[in-house]
Amino acid sequence: AVTVEGVTRSATVDSDGNWAATFEAGSLPAGEYDTTVSVTSTDTAGNTASATASLHVDTVVDPITLDSGVEGDDIVNETERSDGVTLTGTVEPGSTVVVQLGSATETATVDASGNWSVDFAASDIPQGSYDADVVVTATDAAGNTAEINDTLAIDTEVSPFTADSVTDDDALNLAERAAGLTMTGTVEPGSDVKVTIQGVTRTASVDADGNWSATFAADDLLAGTYTATAEIEATDAAGNTDTLTETFSVDTEYDAPNIGSVISTGTSVSGFFSDDYESSDTVHELTSGGAVSDVTGTETDLGGGNTLFNFDSDVPDGSHL
Ligand SMILES: [Ca+2]
Ligand SMILES: [Ca+2]
Ligand SMILES: [Ca+2]
Ligand SMILES: [Ca+2]
Predict the structure, then answer these.
(1) Which ligand has the shortest distance to the CA of 191?
(2) Closest-lying ligand to the alpha carbon of 237?
(3) Which tens digit of pLDDT belongs to each residue from 168-193?
(4) Residue 257: inside a domain, yes or no?
(5) Dist. CA 82 → ligand 2 center (Å)
(6) Which residue, 155, 175, 198, sits at the end of a domain?
(7) 54 pairs with which residues across the strands?
(8) Of the four listed, 66, 144, 150, 299, which is most buried by Cβ atoms within 10 Å?
């Protein structure tokens, strides 16, 4: 009879005296431990004898761990990806460790204490926003294998990130400047957005859906006629940054048409001739009370750069055009 870990099996003995005992699968405890094999035999005369031998059992890879906190927060941003990503953990000393990250597979180095470490190059890690599968496979000196399955978040971009046009025509006129300018767009939820126009920076508010909005007061916007640049910078929760640039024209200056001879009808003015009137010009009436209002009329091109402007209704004498 043969006994291991308190489990006893009878041996078969052949005609030459060779004996064999089988411990079927599952009959001995799994794990890694040292134990003793005790053999007792009884001959046909009833004499007994016993023998012992030591036995090392190893059915497991233990320990096997994968460290968390990869690139600080288990999220790999573009900066962190660009210089490669290192995964570490511990394993039973003497084991080999192979690690798969996404579709890349690398063999880890394992030190005498069982600390393993594996480097993945940037080229092993496609850019984008996704969870990469991580499979750690360890094989110990006894040939046992064990596996850890996990995922690692890859986020190397601010996506989506858009900016709407500045005003409906990418042009800011006098009235629009006076009302202040609100720039809008969409961004990856959880991002910070700031907008800089001609050196003035405003932080945008970003709602839970990623709609951003940045407001510039009239005084934030330089008056005049020029091309302005809005730099919109977004930083997502993973630490990626991206910048959009929007250019738009600013024209807050108004050149009044030169008024030549005025057509008078007694106590009122019904029109005027101008040598530089343009169809986009606006004609204002300044009343004696100080109010300003637009005056509409009919333009007639007289040729040679001259225009006749007939008011729709006569402007009383005393108004200023
Ligand atoms: Ca083992
Ligand atoms: Ca990170
Ligand atoms: Ca890195
Ligand atoms: Ca992102």
Answers:
(1) 4
(2) 4
(3) 889 898 888 999 999 999 999 999 99
(4) no
(5) 12
(6) 155
(7) 36
(8) 66
